[in-house]
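Schema walk-through. Below, the input block comes first and the output block second. Nothing else is stored per chain. Lengths vary across the set, and this one has 217 residues.
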Amino acid sequence: MDTYPIALACIDADGTLSVAAQAEGAYEVTLRNSKRVDRTSQPASRENFLRALAATAPAAPKIAFFTGHSDAGVAGVDAALRLEDGLLTAEDLTFGAGLAFPARVVFSSCSSGGAVGAGRGEWLGLSAACLLRGARQVIGTAWPILDHPATLAFEEDLLDALVAGVDPASALRACQLRRLAEWRVSDFDLTEGARLMLPSDLATPLVWASFQCMGVY
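--- output ---
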């Protein structure tokens, strides 16, 4: 089974998250908010993000990973990644000159799947932009997700499988089924009217059930 290295990891670009910012891994290019940049990373600016994509061959057997904030938009093409110095929209990604995405893309950010029927029934958004620019499969989310240890653990589990060459849909399904089994045997209980407090090790479906895989096979 062929492996898929992580060509680009953009982590907490706008610097507003605490748990997501802890993501670590073997990344070829790492972009972080300037306040967290070290010798292994660069600022998560639009320029650096686009430069990394421009250096990527369409459908290259690699992974692009984004964890942070994204906006669903209204018309789909205005869906956007929040980078350190502003928004990078689906329209920017679709029509930007010389941009390409590797074969596999993971968006661990709010409502990044884009399958909302916007644009008068057209399926638009960040995931569609990636597919138009070379990606074969994109994993995104159907609703806003939490900056929570459960999200970080899910990302790590999923990326490990993708790097090992597991098919994205199969990898996502396996990660979700494991967490479904954990959720079913958990003793978590939310008393009506109580403040929502999620244990750090809780496999909450608020996180894992949001992820969906789209692509071409």
